[in-house]
Amino acid sequence: MTDQVSRIAERIPADFGEVIRTRRSVRHYDPHFVLSREEIRSLIADAVLAPSSNNLQPWRFLVIDRKEDKEKLYPIANSQKQVLEASATIAVLGDLEGYKRVKEINRIAVERGYMTGEFAAQQAERLLASYGARSEDALRRIVLIDGSLAAMQLMLAARARGLDTVPMGGFDHERFIEAFRVPATYVPIMLIAVGKAAAEGRPTARLPVDDVTVWGSF
Ligand SMILES: Cc1cc2nc3c(=O)[nH]c(=O)nc-3n(C[C@H](O)[C@H](O)[C@H](O)COP(=O)(O)O)c2cc1C
User: Fold this and answer.
1) Mean per-residue pLDDT, 100-105
2) CATH number of the domain that 58 lies in?
């Protein structure tokens, strides 16, 4: 097993190892550091390469980068200072009706030769029927998972560029929805502050792998 683990580790590029090992939740940012909207778009472009249930990509992003919007968010996000100091806070949202865009997604796939028109049409009808029959709770669970994968990828994309982030679940969802006029079908998943660290994140402990892993069956 050890040999296999080391063989796999060798295949991971060193810079990826550095990205995942140096990511920490950073709560102090240089308030003068500006991230351009182009740079933020490139983070999101990396985030949306994440996998999603049936590739339906129900994640949506609200970028809060203007001073007045940061000030509006601050009390809603439990007065967490990073909201004011970071270059931007990106709200990751999940669209409960995101599956309705399946034909649009499939059209792009057909144009690129990833699937035939016939398959695209059949698959779209099948997904529209199956997702349309799901309860709101089931759809909510799906978008929370998909959105969280994109959120993680966004944080790693930021770290790979020398930026830092902190995910935040500590905010008032109802007030957030109202203040930022979030559409009724969108579920807030988490906020991610992103910017240039003014102080390093605190090291945090992890449970040993063997304490959180079971092989084969419980
Ligand atoms: C879903 C989620 C919600 C979180 N909410 C907050 C938050 O509201 N404020 C905060 O300062 N950190 C928040 N964190 C960051 C965690 O405290 C942090 O990830 C954890 O302590 C591990 O530290 P690390 O990210 O530096 O590895 C959150 C993390 C996650 C995954």
Assistant:
1) 98
2) 3.40.109.10
